[in-house]
Design brief:
With 264 residues, the protein is an alpha/beta fold. 42% of the residues lie in helices and 20% in strands. It has helices at residues 35-50, 79-90, 130-140, 147-151, 165-177, 182-204, 220-230, 243-261; strands spanning 2-7, 11-17, 23-30, 59-64, 75-76, 96-100, 105-110, 116-122, 210-213, 234-235. A five-stranded mixed beta sheet has the order 3-2-1-4-5. Helix 3 packs parallel to helix 5 (165-177), helix 3 runs antiparallel to helix 6 (182-204) and helix 6 (182-204) packs across helix 7 (220-230). The longest helix is centred in the C-terminal third of the chain and has 23 residues, at 182-204. It is globular and about 65 Å long.
Length: 264
């Protein structure tokens, strides 16, 4: 078996695949302050779930912010390459990938043969990322996982003028004081996230098919609003958080063959 592990700012994700590139098991956990501990915990959990030993892993590739902090990795690869590989596994015709992570968002342009042609990142502030949504959820006292569902019940359009997370929190508090419905405020928050995403997508020039990855892709309120803005369908993988780790696992299989693993 082959492993790919993606250590991000919010979650650590690991995927095991077999010789036929089939997913055998995966695990998603919260990233702690100690990346090495997070990596080891994820590895322990995924092997326990699969019922295998860590020594059964032939090759492991790490990616993400903490990719250089994994003790047992065979190689580390940038998340750009891994997300491209993982997205193409599910959607072979993907040309544009929007990944919204915990502390940044990025757009990856993919060529017809799956190669990375270009990418753009927004990492100057947390606005428009998973951290932004978590901060807004705390102010509203709602579960961040319920925000998509709640936004579907919005009945009035509300715009947030602040792009900074700190100022946006104050603006949301003011909206609450003005007795706006929580559902309408959440819809406005989603609109703010989508506007920032569309801005970076347009800079990259949107080409179909568009695939969205990262934990924010589970928020269907944001996905539907994004589709409305760009005028086309946005494809969501079955588990959007593991796409980077899956790409790393696919690269692990390839690298193993290169170093003498033959046809496995």
């Amino acid at each position: 078996m082959f492993a790919g592990i993606d250590i991000g700012s919010s979650s650590t994700n690991i995927v095991l695949i077999n010789d036929e590139k089939e997913i055998e098991s995966y695990e998603v956990i919260q990233t702690s302050a100690n990346h090495k501990e997070s990596a080891q915990k994820a590895l322990n959990l995924v092997c326990e779930k699969k019922g295998c030993l860590q020594s059964d892993l032939k090759y492991m590739v790490s990616t993400g912010y903490g990719r250089k902090n994994v003790d047992k990795t065979s190689k580390n690869v940038t998340e750009i390459s891994c997300h491209a590989r993982g997205a193409r596994y599910y959607y072979p015709k993907v040309r544009t990938i929007l990944d919204i992570g915990g502390q940044d968002s990025k757009v990856i342009k993919v060529g017809v043969n799956g190669q990375v042609e270009d990418f753009l990142m927004n990492e100057k502030c947390a606005a428009g990322t998973g951290r932004f949504l978590e901060a807004m959820a705390r102010v509203l006292d709602v579960n961040v996982d319920k925000m998509g569902e709640l936004s579907e019940q919005a009945s009035k359009e509300i715009k947030l003028s602040s792009v900074c997370t700190v100022f946006a929190e104050s603006e949301v508090i003011s909206k609450i004081a003005d007795e706006h419905r929580i559902e309408d405020i959440i819809d406005g928050i989603h609109d703010s996230v989508c506007c920032r995403s569309v801005a970076i997508l347009e800079r990259a020039i949107i080409e179909p098919s568009v695939v969205m990855t990262g934990g924010v892709a589970k928020n269907m309120g944001i996905v539907r609003k994004l589709e409305k803005y760009i005028g086309q369908k946005v494809f969501i993988p079955p588990e959007p958080q593991i796409v980077g780790a899956l790409g790393a696992a696919l690269i692990a299989l390839e690298e193993y063959k290169k170093v003498g693993g033959g046809n496995c």
